[in-house]
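pinging the channel bc i need a second pair of eyes. not urgent but kinda urgent?? the chain im working w is below, pasted from the shared doc
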Amino acid sequence: MYRPTTRLLTVLELLQARGRIGGGELAQRLEVDERSVRRYVAMLQDIGIPITSERGRHGGYRLRPGFR
């Protein structure tokens, strides 16, 4: 349904809008599995987008504070 580029941009938009979002929720929004989410996050990090991840119950992905 979505192209990979569209999914990458969607991940970035969600992180900018929400601040922090879990891998499961990202997977659901993108209609992919969590492994694919990890690949998309890695691709964004490879091009210089400062995404951090936190494990655990209150973990998830977020952009480094101050990034626009």
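so The radius of gyration is 11 Å. and The mean pLDDT is 91. — does that match what u expected or am i reading it wrong
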